[in-house]
Amino acid sequence: MQAIRYEAPGTVDEAVRLMQADPGARVLAGGTDLLVQFRSGVRQPTAFIDVKRIPELVDITIDDQGLRLGAATPGAAICEHDELRRRWPGLAESVALIGSTQIQGRGSVGGNMCNASPAADTPCPLIVNRAECLIVGPQGQRTVAAEHFMSGPGQNVLTSGEFLAALVLPLPDALTADAYLRLTPRSEMDIAVVGAAVSVTLDATGVCTAARVALAAVAPTPILVPDAAQALIGTHVDAAALDRAAAAARAAARPIDDKRGTVAYRRQVAGVLTKRAAAIACERARGN
Amino acid sequence: MSSIRVETTINDEPAEFLCSGPDTLLTALRDTLGLTGTKEGCSTGDCGACSVLLDGRLVPACLVLAAEVQGRTVTTVEGIAARDALHPVQQAFLEGAALQCGICTPGFIVAAKALLDANPDPTEQEARYWLAGNLCRCTGYDKIIRAVLDAAAEMRKVTA
């Protein structure tokens, strides 16, 4: 048997070349999914391409263009970033919910996207914040909206030789904020039964002028729910509007029955979390 | 097939070892370098027994490839004590009987040190959340949390 190689390229171009040269190679970021899958025999890569020596893969920059989050940046670095936390509190709270302190020391948002668990926590806040996935590969680079990156449980749109280099988020408008909530039976070290992210933009009179709602663990991939957003837009996000958004979230949910919850329970919770996350996002937006 | 040569810093001393691509840092520490203080629990990142600091950041050594630590700094439980005295967290675990079988203890010590480095005055809730990824199947956590908070108080006294 051929030995499994370890490579630590220092540039994106070098990583692309390594990925192109070996179709069995897998990108290693935090390893919190890949190394577990490797050891359980689910994945048998021919090489680990460790992208954490590429400076822009583990970097957080915020400028007038917005946020550029290197795909392999560990969650802990995101939680420690004051400006990121202030501008995207929902994204930061989704990261802080993942696994343990130890897992957050390794696991990355890019890895969370690529692993494409329907119950993943970070995709929904990325989706409501209009994140673009910056993908690099043999054909150069392309971007895909976060809501289109995952194509099924454990599946994403990356083709052979491609990898996710960064998540790029526009700066939020004035009076805009996000929030993320998930339901888990345990308060820590658990996986979402349902997750909901909401972003809202208000005008000076408190009327919602833009909104995005995304749900986790109620479909084969995280889903954007335009009808729930529509229920908030043009309103003062009052109780009636929140109820309509919750109804839209319930209608959009297509969950499965499994050990974490039933279809009926998940559908109900999708509505409740949408309502609560929208209320939190509004509260935050008023302060922005 | 140990084909990769790694030069790194472990517990403030230069170290070098050979490993193969899929070897974990946990394996290298325990089997190659003889640093058996770091324990293997689940090997899936769920239990915290193999917690170490990598460039100061708390990570599970079972989910780090050995080759990744080239040029980095690693701190294991063997590097927590000062030359002539236990770390206050270690002392508090002893005095508070915050361990039974001891398998989880090194992970708790390393994780608690990382907590107190970042937050010298954690609330009980903050300590419990920070240590939620360290599993103990003997003690029921109460003595552990009390020991960590006692150590924090002791360390604040020293620096005050």
Descriptors:
heterodimer, A: 288 residues, alpha+beta, Uridine Diphospho-n-acetylenolpyruvylglucosamine Reductase, domain 3, Enolase-like, domain 1, 5-stranded antiparallel sheet, 4-stranded antiparallel sheet, 12 helices, B: 160 residues, Ubiquitin-like (UB roll), DNA polymerase, domain 1, 5-stranded mixed sheet, 5 helices, 34% helix
Give an overview in words.
- The complex is a heterodimer of chains A (288) and B (160).
- With 288 residues, chain A is an alpha+beta fold.
- Chain A folds into two domains: 165 residues, 2-Layer Sandwich (Uridine Diphospho-n-acetylenolpyruvylglucosamine Reductase, domain 3), CATH 3.30.465.10; 112 residues, CO dehydrogenase flavoprotein, C-terminal domain (Enolase-like, domain 1, 2-Layer Sandwich).
- In chain A, 35% of the residues lie in helices and 25% in strands.
- Chain A is built from twelve helices and 14 strands.
- In chain A, the strands form four sheets. A five-stranded antiparallel beta sheet of chain A has the order 4-5-10-6-7. In chain A, strands 11-12-13-14 form a four-stranded antiparallel beta sheet.
- In chain A, α10 packs antiparallel against α11 and α11 crosses α12.
- With 160 residues, chain B is an alpha+beta fold.
- Chain B folds into two domains: 76 residues, Ubiquitin-like (UB roll) (Roll), CATH 3.10.20; 72 residues, DNA polymerase, domain 1 (Orthogonal Bundle), CATH 1.10.150.120.
- Helix content of chain B is 34%, strand content 16%.
- Chain B has a five-stranded mixed beta sheet, with helices on both faces.
- In chain B, α2 packs across α5.
- Chain B is globular and about 45 Å long.
- The mean pLDDT of chain B is 96.
- The chains are: A alpha+beta (288), B alpha+beta (160).
- Chains A and B meet through α2, β3 and α6 of A and β4 and α3 of B.
